[in-house]
Amino acid sequence: MNDSDRDISGSSEDLVPPTGSASPEVAPGTTDDDRFECRACGYVYDPNKGDPKNRIIAGTPFTVLPMTWKCPTCGAKKGAFTNVGTTASYGFKENQRYGLGVNTMSPGQKSLLIYGGLGVAIIIFISLYTLN
């Protein structure tokens, strides 16, 4: 049976918590809310959403997924995932303390900072034409 034959439209009662051995290699500082990104395809496992395709219920931390769990997009093994932090943080967790606080900003906040700064610079430049 291939992936297109699977019925993933079942209700939330059909989803089950994972069984089997969890990953023994948990990095220090990893929390249950941390998201993990597949280095092969970019899929992000969010514990708040779970993995309906593999029948993993919402609220299941990545660290308790069985070692046999694979990426639902590309089939990469669990070891191919990297911790990218919680849903409130952006970018890789180890880079959060760098960048003068910019690495903790959301993409929308970064865009506002960049385009807002450009807008202020243009207004100042145009106002220079009013000088005699």
From TrEMBL:
Alphabetical GO biological process terms: alkane catabolic process
Q: What is the lineage of its organism?
A: Bacteria, Bacillati, Cyanobacteriota, Cyanophyceae, Gomontiellales
Protein family per UniProt: Belongs to the rubredoxin family.
rRNA-binding among keywords? no
Look up the domain of life of the source: Bacteria
**Classification via Pfam families:** Rubredoxin
> Which CDD domains does this UniProt record tie to the protein?
rubredoxin
Spans through the membrane: 112-131
The Swiss-Prot or TrEMBL record lists the needed cofactor(s) as: Fe(3+)
Record's protein name: Rubredoxin
Q: Which GO terms describe its molecular function?
A: electron transfer activity; iron ion binding
